[in-house]
């Protein structure tokens, strides 16, 4: 079972034994992580670009729907803020791991 949240593929942590896959190599895991991260960043960029285009079109008088422009801008803002918060959590987790004694 797979679901998608804002273009990011999310998989359940636990699955029954019939759906178990063979172990993933380190290279494959890095590649999968890099692809997921890249698609998430592209999604944030796409929402920012869409917001900029609608704002510019409103300023030029090409569209009259202020509500649509504001909703698009808010989606872009939330998307960017979420990515910043995730970045902070990742950095905090990395720093915590680096402080661990072996």
TrEMBL record:
Q: Do you know which Pfam families this protein is assigned to? A: FliE
Q: Where is this region: Disordered?
A: 1-31
GO terms under cellular component: bacterial-type flagellum basal body
Localization, per the record, is:
Bacterial flagellum basal body
Keyword check for Lipid metabolism, yes or no: no
Give UniProt keywords alphabetically: Bacterial flagellum, Cell projection, Cilium, Flagellum
User: In this entry, which stretches build a coiled coil?
Assistant: none
Q: Name one GO molecular function term.
A: structural molecule activity
Question: Compositionally biased, Polar residues: which spans?
Answer: 15-31
Question: Principal localization?
Answer: other
* HAMAP family xrefs: FliE (MF_00724)
The protein's name is: Flagellar hook-basal body complex protein FliE
Organism of this sequence: Lentibacillus cibarius
